[in-house]
Amino acid sequence: MTTEPSLTTEEFNEQMRIRMEKRARLLERGEDAYQVLPERSSSLGEIRKRFADLEAGDSTGENVSVVGRVVFLRNTGKLCFATLQEGDGTRLQAMLSLAAVGEESLADWKTTVDLGDHVQVSGEVISSRRGELSVMAVSWKMASKALRPLPTLHAGVNEETRVRQRYVDLMVREEAREMVRTRAAITRSIRETLHSHQYVEVETPILQLVHGGAAARPFETHVNAFDQKMTLRIALELYLKRAVVGGIDRVYEIGRIFRNEGVDSTHSPEFTMLECYEAYADQFVMAERMKEIILNCADLLGSRQLESAEGTIDLDGEWRWLGVYPGLSESVGQEITPETDKATLLALAKEREISVDQNWDEEKLVLELFSEIVEPTLLQPTFVYDYPPSAQPLARPHRGNPRLIEAWDLIIGGMERGTAFSELIDPVIQRERLVEQSRRAAAGDDEAMQLDEDFLRALEYGAPPMGGIGLGIDRLVMLFTSAGIRETILFPLLKPELG
């Protein structure tokens, strides 16, 4: 059982018992402990805005009915005070005096209301002698009785409770509510940017017969109606490309992705991706789209300079282009090319104490070395490009070098934020790539893609040249908030509670 952080188990159980008794007394008196629709003439925010200039000690002569959660209580003699809070964090004081509400109602307030309860208060809007905007109550009712004690605001809520009981986090921390608003603003800005370029938003299947579009291990499930094993999608790509083949030249989806992999400060098995595809575009057009998307988000949030633990990230500065092989060569102090042999790469990994699999081929080793040695050093926005083909089986061969593909990853703050390709539309080469992926899967590679015959059939009808983007929404929010991934996801996937 989870208790409120500042209470012992015994104290918590006793408070729960007392609150249950108060609920029972309300019901015994024929009163509703959980109203359907409490009387509410104004929100707390509306009253704050309308009477912001009210002088200390003044009255308005205007009666209102408000509802809010009780986050502070002070019951003293003939005058009681409460602070009410509504969903966006706005607060307003309620005052209950013996003269205004009567002896019975005031006594009932003192014996019934606890921190965390939602109450409805009716009365005149005034400013107290100390200048606190208030509702001087003439009546009150319980709107929703809280059975669990509210966490103590000054004591805070530990990280585990914040992510496991996000509803509690939202009650007591403005930062948690601000994270929700920031994420919503970022998602809205992305949509507005894409709509300005005539993109069409669509929805594609989450349950899929064939998993593909990324190198990732899928979650498996079973559809009883078809007696068919299926997987949850690991990417949005293949269905969005089908839409482009069909004539939706600019298409996107912001959707949930599921990958049955590890959990850490930058990875979650369930996360949100933007994927968009544009006919008659390539990786460089998509780089401009990505830059516009991120700068528009920055402008909406108020700054293109972001503070991180490693230093200031300047989105207004140059967005560098860095080749995989030149970047790795510079970092290790020796030339690394597509022709570099496996022994040399294994020796580099051993020298730098980077864990690798001896069975990996040269391309896989280069990718691992780059991600461990170079990527963490890239603080400023950097398009890492000219990858080896195995990095992205769905990207087209490089127009100038057949040993490379046309793809980039955007690294900001030492972390990948998104990726893009000049998309592979040749069905013959795509079949070869997916057959190779199938061979890897048969050899035990849990992350290899499956051979998707319907996707290949779509390409065989003739796909227009296109560019595509994949952008992690969670990682973009992390960039703008300096928070871990568990803080940016409202309800992250967690291990079950013990006991």
From TrEMBL:
GO molecular-function terms, A-Z: ATP binding; lysine-tRNA ligase activity; magnesium ion binding; tRNA binding
Record localization: Cytoplasm
Major subcellular site: cytoplasm
Keywords annotated in UniProt: Aminoacyl-tRNA synthetase, ATP-binding, Cytoplasm, Ligase, Magnesium, Metal-binding, Nucleotide-binding, Protein biosynthesis
Top-rank taxon: Bacteria
Residues that bind Mg(2+) 2: E416
Catalytic class of the enzyme: ligase
Binding site for Mg(2+) 1: D409, E416
Reaction(s) catalysed (UniProt annotation): tRNA(Lys) + L-lysine + ATP = L-lysyl-tRNA(Lys) + AMP + diphosphate
Details of cofactor binding: Binds 3 Mg(2+) ions per subunit.
EC number: 6.1.1.6
Listed cofactors: Mg(2+)
Domain called Aminoacyl-transfer RNA synthetases class-II family profile: residue spans: 181-496
One GO BP: lysyl-tRNA aminoacylation
The UniProt record lists the keyword ATP-binding: yes
Gene Ontology cellular-component annotations: cytosol
A Pfam family the protein falls into: tRNA_anti-codon
Subunit description: Homodimer.
Family to which the UniProt record says this protein belongs: Belongs to the class-II aminoacyl-tRNA synthetase family.
Protein name, as recorded: Lysine--tRNA ligase
Source organism (scientific name): Arthrobacter pigmenti
Source taxonomy: Bacteria, Bacillati, Actinomycetota, Actinomycetes, Micrococcales
Gene behind this protein: lysS
